[in-house]
Write a structure and sequence with these properties.
CATH architecture: 2-Layer Sandwich
Shape: globular
Largest sheet: 5 strands, mixed
Number of helices: 6
Order of helices and strands: HEHEEEHEHHEHEEE
CATH topology: Muramoyl-pentapeptide Carboxypeptidase, domain 2
Structural class: alpha/beta
Radius of gyration: 17 Å
Strand content: 5-15%
Number of domains: 1
């Protein structure tokens, strides 16, 4: 019998060959419908800032596609690593790019048949919230969290193409993933697990990858999705 920890490391190695695992990776080539003309180029990656009209077209509330998806946005109050509500979080709605939202609903449908559910900690994130994270890390002497890849100055969350999420059972209890959400240590690296934790993480990665989501190998909870010509947003979550 092959140890679960070994299986997980093997699977993660294969995923690493298929996609970059940093927040500002180059998007893939999944087709995306045209939207209204966006504003000026934002940041060195050349991704445009979307307008409010673009957001209305592209960002979808995941619960509008499947109400059984649980949502507990961790940055809408002070119960997060910064100790404060992040700017731009004014409601408990998980928004994603419409293609990513549709894929997530398919994941949920598969999991629901197995007695499980997704629980979302973060999805689309306004640019101002990302900037607040970077400012916090610099101010409190934790700039290493940026250089180590735990806090991104340009995040795919801003595109509606990243999600922080876990699995819960039929009672709503979170499956054991080894660490809490937003644990900034090697223990949160997806392949750094054994036993039941490794089994849970592997089950999670497998379910998400079937629908096109790619796990960030330093954070078991973080997944991204790729589309062509993404837009960056700074629209509040309400």
């Amino acid at each position: 019998m092959i140890a679960p920890g070994y299986c997980l490391r093997a699977v993660m190695a294969l995923f690493a060959l298929a996609a970059c695992t940093i927040e500002n990776r180059t998007p893939g080539n999944t087709p995306s419908s045209a939207v209204s003309a966006p504003s000026t180029v934002n940041a060195p990656d050349g991704i445009l800032m979307g307008t409010a009209a673009d957001a209305d077209t592209l960002l979808v509330d995941v619960q509008s596609l499947d109400r059984s998806i649980l949502v507990d946005l961790r940055y809408r109050d002070s119960a997060n690593f910064t100790g404060a509500t992040l700017p731009g979080y004014e409601g408990n709605r998980a928004l994603l790019h419409r293609e990513a939202a549709a894929a997530l609903a398919r994941v949920q449908g598969t999991l629901r048949a197995e007695g499980l559910s997704l629980k979302v900690f973060d999805a689309y994130r306004p640019v101002r919230a990302t900037e607040a994270m970077v400012e916090w890390a610099t101010r409190v002497g934790q700039a290493s969290l940026i250089s180590d890849g735990y806090i991104a100055d340009r995040s795919r969350h801003n595109l509606g193409l990243a999600i922080d999420v876990t699995l819960v059972d039929s009672t709503g209890a979170e499956l054991d993933m080894g660490t809490p959400f937003d644990t900034f240590s090697d223990a949160a690296h997806t392949a750094r697990a054994t036993g039941k934790v490794a089994e849970n993480r592997l089950r999670f990665v497998t379910a998400m990858s079937r629908e096109g989501f790619v796990n960030y190998d330093r954070e078991w909870w973080h997944y991204s999705y790729s589309v062509s010509l993404p837009l960056r947003f700074d629209i509040p979550v309400r």
